[in-house]
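C-alpha cells incoming
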C-alpha cells in the first residue's frame, strides 16, 4: 500500500485597512522575533511540502519489483548473536523504511541464520530490499529477498477472519518441507540400516552428503559493535575511497568537544574520531550513524546514490 504525501498550504490572514492614518511604524524585539519565526515556519513548511512531493513523484516513477510483497526474507545472519538481540536489531534497522509489524526468527537448525521482517507496505519492503542488501550486520552481509507467502502478522492485520486457514496451510507446508529435507532422509536411511542390517540405498546415502561433509569453520564470537560500552573515541567504518581527513573533520566539527580525527594509512575506509568526553562522542554517534557520506561532497541526502552509508560506533577499549 503506497502512502500519499499530504500537501500543506500556508494560511494567509486578510486584515481590513485602518480607517485613520497609520501611526509611525515601530518594530519591537518581539515583533522581529515573531516575524523571523513566521518566515522560518513558512520555509520549513515549503521544504516539507517539496520533500513530500518529491517522495510521491519518486514512488510514481519507480514501479514495484516483480513479486514484491510486504514480507522480507533475510538470511546469512550471524548465528552467534542471541535471538532477542538479533530481532531487536532487525526491527531498529527496518523501521527506517516503514512500520515493522513483526520480526520472526527461530533458533532451530533449519531456520538458523534467517528471519522474516513484515512491513506495512510493499513500497516500504521494496525500499528495504534495495538499500539493506549486503548491509553488514554483526560482521556478515545480509542477503534479502521477498518472501513467497504472507506472514501471520500481515494476515492478522488485513484478513483476520482467514487466520485459522492461513495457519493450517502454513503447518501443512512445514510438514512437506520436513519430509523433503535431504538431511532428514539421510538420517532415516541410516537409522533403518542400523535396525535392519541392510545398507542404505546409494540415493538415500548421498542425500544431504554435501551439507554433511562440508568443512565447518569455527567463528570467533565478538561483542556486537552496537553494544560496546561508551567511549570518547568513535570508530567509523565503510568510508568511501575518496575520504580525506579534512572532509571527515568537516563532518564531525559541528559536534561539540571534538579533539582529533585520525585516519589510518592504507585503510581509507576506516577512521577514529576522538572527543573530550563520552557524552560528546555519544551525541555525534547517534547523529551520524548510517549517514550517507561522500569524501568530496560530505554528508549527502539518504536518497542520493553518491557516497556510502557510514557506520559509527564506540571504539573497543584496549
Amino acid at each position: 500500500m503506497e502512502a500519499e504525501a499530504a500537501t500543506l498550504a500556508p494560511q494567509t490572514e486578510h486584515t481590513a485597512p485602518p480607517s485613520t492614518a497609520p501611526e509611525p511604524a515601530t518594530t519591537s524585539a518581539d515583533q522581529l522575533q515573531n516575524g523571523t519565526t513566521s518566515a522560518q515556519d513558512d520555509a520549513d513548511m515549503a521544504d516539507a511540502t517539496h520533500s513530500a512531493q518529491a517522495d510521491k513523484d519518486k514512488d510514481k516513477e519507480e514501479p514495484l519489483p516483480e513479486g514484491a510483497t510486504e514480507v522480507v526474507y533475510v538470511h546469512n545472519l550471524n548465528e552467534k548473536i542471541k535471538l532477542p538481540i538479533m530481532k531487536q536489531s532487525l526491527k531498529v534497522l527496518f523501521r527506517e523504511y516503514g512500520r515493522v509489524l513483526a520480526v520472526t526468527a527461530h533458533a532451530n537448525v533449519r531456520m538458523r541464520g534467517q528471519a522474516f521482517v513484515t512491513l506495512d507496505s510493499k513500497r516500504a519492503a521494496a525500499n528495504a530490499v534495495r538499500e539493506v542488501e549486503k548491509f553488514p550486520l554483526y560482521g556478515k552481509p545480509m542477503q534479502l529477498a521477498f518472501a513467497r507467502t504472507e506472514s501471520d502478522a500481515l494476515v492478522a492485520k488485513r484478513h483476520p477472519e482467514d487466520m485459522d486457514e492461513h495457519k493450517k496451510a502454513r503447518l501443512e507446508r512445514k510438514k512437506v518441507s520436513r519430509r523433503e529435507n535431504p538431511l532428514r532422509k539421510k538420517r532415516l536411511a541410516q537409522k533403518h540400516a542400523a535396525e535392519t542390517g541392510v545398507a542404505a540405498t546409494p540415493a538415500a546415502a548421498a542425500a544431504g552428503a554435501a551439507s554433511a561433509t562440508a568443512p565447518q569453520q569455527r567463528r570467533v564470537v565478538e561483542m556486537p559493535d552496537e553494544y560496546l560500552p561508551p567511549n570518547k573515541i568513535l570508530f567509523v567504518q565503510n568510508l568511501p575511497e575518496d575520504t580525506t581527513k579534512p572532509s571527515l573533520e568537516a563532518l564531525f566539527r559541528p559536534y561539540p568537544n571534538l579533539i582529533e580525527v585520525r585516519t589510518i594509512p592504507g585503510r581509507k575506509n576506516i577512521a577514529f574520531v576522538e572527543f573530550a568526553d563520552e557524552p560528546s562522542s555519544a551525541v555525534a554517534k547517534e547523529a551520524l550513524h548510517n549517514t550517507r557520506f561522500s569524501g568530496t561532497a560530505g554528508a549527502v541526502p539518504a536518497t542520493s546514490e553518491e557516497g556510502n552509508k557510514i557506520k559509527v560506533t564506540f571504539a573497543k577499549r584496549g
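note: The domain at 58-180 is CATH 3.30.70.330 (Alpha-Beta Plaits).
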